Amino acid sequence: MDDTHFDVIVIGGGTAGLSGALTLARARRSVLVIDAGEPRNAPADGIHGYLTRDGLAPSDLVRLGEDEVTRYGGQVVRARATSARADGPGFAVGTDDGREVTARRLLVTTGLVDELPDIPGLRDLWGHDVLHCPYCHGWEVRDQPVGVLATSPFAVHQALLFRQWSPDVTLFLHTSPDPAPDEWEQLAARDIAVVDGEVTALETRDGRLSGVRLTSGRVVPRRALAVMPRFVARGDVLAGLGLAAVDHAMGVGQHVAADVAGLTSVPGVRVAGNVTDLMAGVVGAAAAGVAAAAALNADLVADDARRAVEQRRSPFSAASGARVAEIVTGERRHGLTPARS
Ligand SMILES: Cc1cc2nc3c(=O)[nH]c(=O)nc-3n(C[C@H](O)[C@H](O)[C@H](O)COP(=O)(O)OP(=O)(O)OC[C@H]3O[C@@H](n4cnc5c(N)ncnc54)[C@H](O)[C@@H]3O)c2cc1C
């Protein structure tokens, strides 16, 4: 087996990348996954909302996924891809452990970085008591005192959302402008308290969130705090291909633009998961990885057919001479009229 050239290199082996790699390996494509081993949900204790995998540790999902990929002949290496460039009709990828590998196609599934508000204590609690996604962890904080830190135009929406999980929700306006009149009305109607003033720190007791401290010195007791990170695609490795992350239409961060099957503006390079779909959860990222991989396989099938036709037509190919009769028979069998001189 050639360990330096592959049909597809997958950069990023989280849910999207491993799902794509599994699809490609089962399609009998040679596939290499290069993964730096830092899935976005690593801080969380368990994954929720992924049917049949409820509560599974993120590291276990990756381990099980890697087992499945390798069972079908895919290869996985723990490394960071540091460069990607066009290389003849395909691509070359360099890694931080000194490898250079090539492939006919690339699937980029490097995920995103959550840029968090710069408040002392917040980062340490990220993924536990500091949350962003109610569908991922709302159930775990149900009926508890929840705060929502206003850092984006979606803060009121986020507060109304968390109200579905807890009757005790407080919106901290922090440095954001006041809600609009209709939003005040909604907040009041849903019994959501609103606290003025900048948040200066998060207080903890026994390693768990106990309260939100304001500039005034007041501490509002809370067990969980919802924040809205800025979502930034990890797309640096694409720079050598002329692809860059662009502002997302919703104003929530930056992503690599692509269609539903991960098609980018660079032929042969597809993307899937959070690197392009900033809102995708684990199931969505897995599904996108499968869709992009199936599209890549279809690209390769078309490429294989094109090459085979070219080879067959070539007067210098093995198909000339003795094989011509066989080809003519084949054309007849396929209902084609063979060209005769
Ligand atoms: C705290 C937290 C909890 C969450 N909980 C849930 C939940 O319960 N349920 C749910 O549905 N969703 C949850 N999510 C969302 C979930 O994390 C994403 O949906 C999912 O991780 C997206 O998968 P992905 O494959 O696109 O990216 P990732 O899982 O982030 O995988 C990307 C992989 O690419 C690698 N990588 C990046 N750059 C390179 C490079 N240059 N070279 C090699 N490898 C690279 C990374 O190391 C990483 O392993 C949570 C998110 C957070 C932040």
Q: Could you walk me through the main structural features you see in this protein, from its secondary elements to its overall organization?
A:
The protein is α/β, with parallel strands linked by helices. The chain folds into two domains: 5-114 and 231-304, FAD/NAD(P)-binding domain (3-Layer(bba) Sandwich); 117-226, FAD/NAD(P)-binding domain, CATH 3.50.50. It is 28% helix and 26% strand. The chain is built from eight helices and 19 strands. It has helices at residues 15-26, 58-71, 122-125, 134-137, 155-162, 181-189, 282-313, 322-333, and strands at residues 5-11, 31-35, 75-78, 81-87, 90-95, 100-108, 112-115, 130-131, 146-149, 169-172, 193-195, 199-205, 208-214, 219-221, 224-226, 230-233, 246-247, 253-255, 269-271. The strands form four sheets. Strands 1, 2, 3, 4, 5, 6 and 19 form a seven-stranded mixed β-sheet that branches. Strands 8-15-9-10-11 form a five-stranded parallel β-sheet. Helix 1 (15-26) runs parallel beside helix 2 (58-71) and helix 1 runs parallel beside helix 7 (282-313). The two termini are 43 Å apart. The relative contact order is 0.15. Residues 337-341 have low confidence and may be disordered. Flavin-adenine dinucleotide binds at residues 11-17, 34-41, 43-44, 47-50, 80-81, 109-111, 114, 127, 133, 136, 234, 237, 273-274, 280-283, 285.
Query: How far apart are the first and last residues' alpha carbons, in Å?
Result: 43 Å
- Which ligands, by name, code or SMILES, are bound? flavin-adenine dinucleotide
Query: What is the CATH third-level topology name of the largest domain?
Result: FAD/NAD(P)-binding domain
Proportion in β-strands: 25-35%
Low-confidence stretches: 337-341
User: Mind telling me which CATH architecture of the largest domain this is?
Assistant: 3-Layer(bba) Sandwich
CATH classification class of the largest domain: Alpha Beta
Q: How large is the count of helical segments?
A: 8
State the major sheet. Answer: 7 strands, mixed
Average pLDDT taken over every residue: 93
Name the CATH homologous superfamily of the largest domain.
FAD/NAD(P)-binding domain
Helix percentage range: 25-40%
Q: How would you spell out the order of helices and strands?
A: EHEHEEEEEHEHEHEHEEEEEEEEEHH
Radius of gyration: 26 Å
